[in-house]
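hey can u check if this looks right to u? its 354 residues, i copy pasted from the old doc so theres a chance i mangled smth
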Amino acid sequence: MKKEFSFSFRKELSIHEKEDFYAQIAVLIGSGLDILSSFDVLKSEKKSKKYDSFLDSVYNNLLYGASLSNAVEKTNKVSLYEYYTIKVGEETGKFSEVLDQLAKHYTHRIQQKRNLINTLSYPVVLIVTAFTVVLFMLNFIVPMFEDLFKRFNGELPPLTQFIIHLSAGIKSNFLWIIGIVLLIVFTILSIHKKEYFRAFISRVVLKIPRVNVLVQKIYIAKFCQLFALLSGASIPIVTSLQLIKKIIGFYPFEIALDEIEQKIVNGSLLYEAMAHYPIFDAKLISLTKVGEEVNRMTDIYQRLSEQYLLEVDFQMKKLNTLFEPLIIILVGGGVATILISMYLPMFKMGNTIF
């Protein structure tokens, strides 16, 4: 219990720093250097203060006789599964291989993050731009037309009246609106780790068409990556599931893995336990069965993680292709509605004159 608590409040290294650390230490140890000499090489490359402090702490712990797993654990800058993976690598003599697997894992994580940023950046820019343009028009353009309309007697079209009232409401309640938005953001940040909130958000996400498929494949890919890494380090299935449950970061997976763990302890095979949960697709279950039968879980899960990563990339591109025209239509529609509502009274006055 104390061990788990020590891992719950930590400011970990970034995934880029972890990839760099594990890749370099794997190469250095694989080339025949001892652990202390390897850290002498790493320490000679000055980087960020946090990373340099991490290396210094690990090095000092090693000087006092700690193993690498215990040395990195004492810094509170690595995750629980990294600690156990390195520890198993030390105990099984697969030290260099385990470090290389950790480096590859974080390389995949970095690539996933880049793909996600590339997919979401354009829609986010469009949405922010659209919101800014519409807000500007409602606060500055519409009031100018409203002053013009006051000079003429006559009833304004319903659409024009609605836009004018909307503009007046936003302008007079702007501080309230900002306050409410900030309150919502603060509330979400304060409860986003609560179990009931995570359960609610995951249910909502998994009901959104196309998005649910993408999210499911993202976390299946992550599950396969982690399981392949831990299995390759000769960590038992139950222990692997416990570690993955702590770091997977998606509520339905956490609940499923917790119950799967209990089923395995009670004698079920992994694929049999997974078959009870729709979060795992048929391909993953069938190939898990094959992996258990031929005792090649590591290889199969490594290939599965690569396949799911390719599927995630494909789904992201499809989603991006769908979002781009949809957002453009919404942006154009909002701006066009405001402009039409402002010009309608002019058309009406023109027809009256002629």
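The chain has two domains: 2-78, 97-354.
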